[in-house]
Amino acid sequence: MNDKNFKALPIQLSDKLIGEIKEGNSLFQKPVKENGMPAFVTPINPTTGKGYSAMNALILGMKRHDDPRWMSAEAASYAGTYVKKDEKGTLIEFPKTKDIQAIRTAEGERIKDGAGVTQTKTVTYDKPQQAKSFLFNGEQLKDMEPLEEYLQKQNESQTLSPIERAEKLISDSKAVIIHGGNEAYYDKQRDAIFLPEMEQFENETKYYQAAIHQLAHWTGHESRLDRPMGGKFGSLEYSHEEMRAAIAGILIGGEIKLGHNFGQQASYMNNFARILKDQPFEIAKASRDAQKITALLLGINKKLEQKQGAENNLGFKKGDEIAYMDNSYKVLETYKTKNIKVEDASGTRKIVKPTDGLYSSLLEAKNNPREQEMAMEEEQGQSQEQSYKVGR
């Protein structure tokens, strides 16, 4: 793999999502496949029994396999299974905290024992390093345990139905839910969720899917995950929060086997595509926030921090050199207005403002917070109404 010609994984994911949105078959738009199965199946490592980070789960889930099992070719061989001929892996990335390296002499030669075995040492990094891996789905592997048998074993300990799990999730949240009217939305001023009566929905599943979507918005309150939730209904700013809730709905629906249904998808798709085009690294941020939403609502991490202040990105400094989208940018000047002057690899200079999509994308690339994205296993009038209703 030639890193110079390699697009960062969030950019690849953004490009693919844009294509699917234009075709009308993204996970946001088509929650069920032609065979009647859920479009998103929560990926799992069958060896460890653990899941993947939100962004990786999206990448893998977008392959639309019915089999949830994913592992590397090496891990598959250890498990006694093998990759079928001509199958292609799916690239993910993850933070690596340790590495096993060969012990070498001062001249760089490997040190071996009497049996000729290279001696190794475990190196712990000061901060996580980006690592990449190609994974293969259970449908791409031979000699796998039949899917039906595997799923039966997985579900043996689960005594609650998806509807019952959804009811429990909502009850455990202690969120205020007021029924009535024809809209489903979260009122951030009153910190309450408003839902139509269940009878107004096509079925129970659709009701609970809508409730979970609004619960995702509910987590953004300052007393919980404290996310920015500004902007009027349908605005580009508003759509950033909708993207987070939509991804969280996908993840939660997959986990409790309820499925997801982003009912207002038609109102947001153009904005989603625009965000992904102008700020491709936003998918990494949105995925991380969606993972926090999921963890909070499912109770995966009871010690989850309630504030995101520690994640605020550092600003730019004069002399910063940033690789982004097959180009490089050097920061020539920084200004009190927070504007920056940059020069790209071709020598073109420009002033970039904080309101520009390039600004946030460069900031994301500079700080590369994807290194922090640990996988789950690692631990009144219309205008007024639009200002506080979230997630209609």
Describe this structure in words.
- With 392 residues, the protein is an alpha+beta fold.
- The chain has three domains: 31-94 and 130-155, no CATH class; 162-307, no CATH class; 313-377, Roll (SH3 type barrels).
- Helix content is 34%, strand content 19%.
- It contains eleven helices and 15 strands.
- The strands form five sheets. Strands 8-10-9-15 form a four-stranded mixed sheet.
- The longest helix is centred in the middle third of the chain and has 20 residues, at 236-255.
- The two termini are 44 Å apart.
- Mean pLDDT is 85; it is low at 301-313 and 369-388.
- Residues 381-392 have a biased composition (Low complexity).
- This is Antirestriction protein ArdC.
- Residues 366-392 are annotated as: Disordered.
Write the layout of secondary structure elements.
Elements: H1 9-23, E1 44-45, E2 50-51, H2 54-61, E3 70-72, H3 73-78, E4 82-83, E5 90-102, E6 120-137, E7 141-142, H4 147-155, H5 162-173, E8 177-179, E9 185-187, E10 192-195, H6 204-218, H7 236-255, H8 265-278, H9 282-298, E11 321-324, E12 327-334, E13 340-344, E14 349-352, H10 357-367, H11 382-388, E15 389-390
Parallel strand pairs: 8-10
Antiparallel strand pairs: 1-2, 3-6, 4-7, 5-6, 9-10, 9-15, 11-12, 12-13, 13-14
Helix pairs in contact: 1-8, 5-6, 6-7, 7-8, 7-9
List keywords for this structure.
alpha+beta, 4-stranded antiparallel sheet, 3 domains, 19% strand, SH3 type barrels, single chain, 392 residues, 4-stranded mixed sheet, 11 helices
Q: How many individual domains? A: 3
How would you classify the helix and strand content by structural class?
Answer: alpha+beta
Q: Strand order within the widest sheet?
A: 8-10-9-15
Kindly state the mean pLDDT as a whole number? 85
Q: What oligomerization state is this entry in? A: single chain
- Describe the global form: globular
Give the count of helical stretches: 11
Order of helices and strands: HEEHEHEEEEHHEEEHHHHEEEEHHE
**Which range best describes the helical content: under 10%, 10-25%, 25-40%, 40-55%, 55-70% or over 70%?**
25-40%
Low-pLDDT residue intervals, each spanning 5 or more residues: 301-313, 369-388
Question: How many strands, which pairing sense, and closed or not: the largest β-sheet?
Answer: 4 strands, mixed
Measure the end-to-end span: 44 Å
What percentage of amino acids are in beta strands? 15-25%
Number of strands: 15
Radius of gyration: 23 Å
